[in-house]
Design a protein that fits this description.
This protein is of the alpha/beta class. It has helices spanning about 15-25, 40-50, 65-80, 105-130, 145, 155-175, 190-195, 220-225, and strands at about 5-10, 30-35, 55-60, 85, 135-140, 180-185, 235-240. β2 (about 30-35), α2 (about 40-50) and β3 form a beta-alpha-beta unit. α3 (about 65-80) packs parallel to α4 (about 105-130). The two termini are about 30 Å apart.
Length: about 250
Amino acid sequence: MKLKDRVAIVTGAARGLGRAFCVALAKEGAKIMVVDIADFKDTVKEIESLGGTAKGLRADVSSEKETLKMAEETLAAFGKIDILVNNAAVIYGLLRKPFFEIEPDVWDKVMAVNVKGPWLCTRAVFPHMKAHRKGKIINLSSETFFTGSHGFVHYVASKGGVVGLTRSLAVELGPHNITINAIAPGFTDTEASRSIADVTKYDVSRTPLNRLQQPQDLLGALLFLASDDSDFITGQVLLVDGGRVMH
């Protein structure tokens, strides 16, 4: 087990990629704080059914108060914080619209969760990782940062913000032996993706591996960036999209 006795916080963990990330980390021995504004009980139960250790916490990542509570509750439950996975994002049910029709309050919500959220969560765990002289932070960007996406300017811009955040924070966190990297998934078959598109009609002809991406396709990258195997890698964006974009 690569992550035996490590403690990981995963945001947006109630379903989809977040839930898959929690289970994968737990299988490698990590203790998990499952964080979401939605009902996270099924994720906790799945981890426990596999013999893992998990606790759940309702927290809004766009709130400074709630992210600080997230860090405090994790320390109270497990005594340390080794890994942070900034997965929470606004995408479920997001409507495609021309940029000039997107409501400013929707834009603000996307930015608050998708960009401010990872910043606040990192800010909350930083003192504890700094004291420990080691930490692993993994952000979720998107293939759309490299390609654009019609009608999704708010989402694409937010995922570009995650890349900028990752690179800038790598410079500041590096002296404390904390690495921060981003995974950029392609279009993945999740509940969120199904809420915005018909996944069965997704054109895989431009994907060299010629199939629709599944959540499990991201787990190898996640575990690599969460483990000691990536100790000298920081500030990077790892595209995991079947070769659709080559960067």
